[in-house]
Write a structure and sequence with these properties.
The chain is α/β, with parallel strands linked by helices and about 375 residues long. It has 11 helices and 17 strands. It binds pyridoxal-5'-phosphate.
Length: about 375
């Protein structure tokens, strides 16, 4: 079976993990943790990085530090992996779901702007201006754009909208290490960006995340909160409710080795994307995700639309090509059915009903890519 997306562990991973074990530094205090977060921050062009157990908890901490409370709303795209919404719910806040753009599958900025201009009002409280939803009366504190599949939307426009409406940007960049809009790396457009190093990501620590920010104080607070909010190295004194969210050294060691090989893996991904696009263009009724010319994506997981999605999915999985459907839109999940969903044509539903992801591991070989393409072509031949 050609796997969908597996890690490529062919650098110094074993050497660094062995070093942790040999020295006994396997837990959250250890030099690889600092090294890993610095490498990620530096790569992204952010000033600070804080390593945590996974991307989900990174999104949780970023919201807490943005001041999101149970009385607030957070804006999120309706197409995302569940973790984005779960992280909103951990804060007690209420998500508002925005439908996605039919071409690039990122949050629809026309809908976002219409919604903010027609359904919200601004109010000043103690010298600061906030945006409030007209119907619920709740403050809209933050927005979490998700760089779906490593692609990016118009971040220049999004930044302008957020400035106008006083929204903190927390980028869910979990899938987008290596993705760039103009000359700026994903994760660096707002207050925080969060990367994931989950097993299926472009590089992996097994499980892991890094929060990036340019704000020193926020970075220190993120480190504090993720380490049980302990104030003293010696005494067990804690100054607030903290979390045991810090990444451990043995996983950060894998991360350091993965960061060393990342440039090569990213290049392989971009070549894979170009190959799939060239070979699958015009095959059956395949439609690709559109990439804005200002975006250089990391090509994380190759996903396309076809009216034969379910049949193709079965065919590929039966014929040695591991493939998966796309995420069910958030507004269709039982626990989010009652949330406000801003949409005019329910694009999310169409994407969900037609999209399929095909093998895209960072180390995928050209031979494997050729097999994937020929199996897809065979399928469409059987369709007449
Ligand atoms: C869009 C999105 N958000 C959040 C996450 C959560 O990251 P993690 O699995 O590291 O918690 C993921 C990936 O798993 C994701 O794809």
């Amino acid at each position: 079976m050609i796997p969908l997306s597996i890690p490529q562990l062919e650098g110094n991973e074993w050497k660094y993990v062995k070093d942790c074990i040999d020295t006994g530094w396997i837990s959250s205090a250890g030099s690889y943790v600092n090294q890993f977060e610095q490498m990620v921050a530096e790569y992204a062009g952010a000033k600070y990085g804080v390593a945590c157990m996974n991307g989900t908890v990174g999104l949780h901490i970023a919201q807490i530090l943005s001041g999101v409370t149970q009385d607030d709303h957070v804006l999120v795209p309706n197409i995302t992996f569940i973790a984005t919404l779960n992280a909103v719910k951990y804060t007690g806040a209420t998500p508002i779901l925005i439908d996605v753009d039919a071409n690039n599958w990122q949050m629809d900025l026309d809908l976002l702007e219409d919604f903010l201009s027609n359904s919200t009002s601004s109010k000043s409280i103690e010298g600061a201006t906030f945006t409030f939803h007209n119907t619920t009366g709740k403050r809209i504190k933050a927005i979490m754009p998700v760089h779906v599949l490593g692609n990016m939307g118009d971040m220049a426009r999004l930044s302008e909208i957020c400035e106008k409406y006083h929204l903190d940007i927390i980028e869910d960049s979990t899938e987008a290490l290596g993705s760039i809009f103009k000359d700026k790396h994903s994760g660096t457009f707002g207050k925080f960006g969060v990367f994931s190093f989950n097993g299926n990501k472009i590089i992996s620590t097994g499980g892991g995340g890094v929060i990036v920010t340019d704000d020193k104080e926020l970075a220190e607070k993120a480190k504090h909160l993720t380490t049980q909010a302990k104030v003293s190295a010696m005494d067990y004194i804690h100054d607030e409710i903290g979390y045991n969210y810090r990444l451990v050294n043995v996983l950060a060691a894998i991360g350091v080795a993965q960061m060393e090989t990342f440039p090569n893996l990213l290049e392989n991904k971009r070549k894979m994307d170009a190959f799939y696009r060239k070979e699958l263009e015009g095959v059956g009724d395949i439609i690709f995700q559109v990439v804005d010319e200002r975006v250089n994506p990391n090509c994380w997981l190759f996903t396309f639309k076809t009216s034969k999605m379910r049949e193709l999915l079965a065919y590929l999985n039966e014929n040695g090509v591991q493939s998966r459907p796309f995420w069910m839109p958030m507004n269709q999940l039982e626990m989010f059915k009652k949330e406000i969903y801003v949409s005019s044509e329910d694009v999310s539903s169409n994407i969900y009903n037609t999209s399929i992801s095909i093998p895209s591991s960072a180390g995928i070989t050209l031979e494997q890519q050729k097999t994937v393409v020929s199996t897809i072509k065979e399928f469409y031949k059987t369709q007449g």
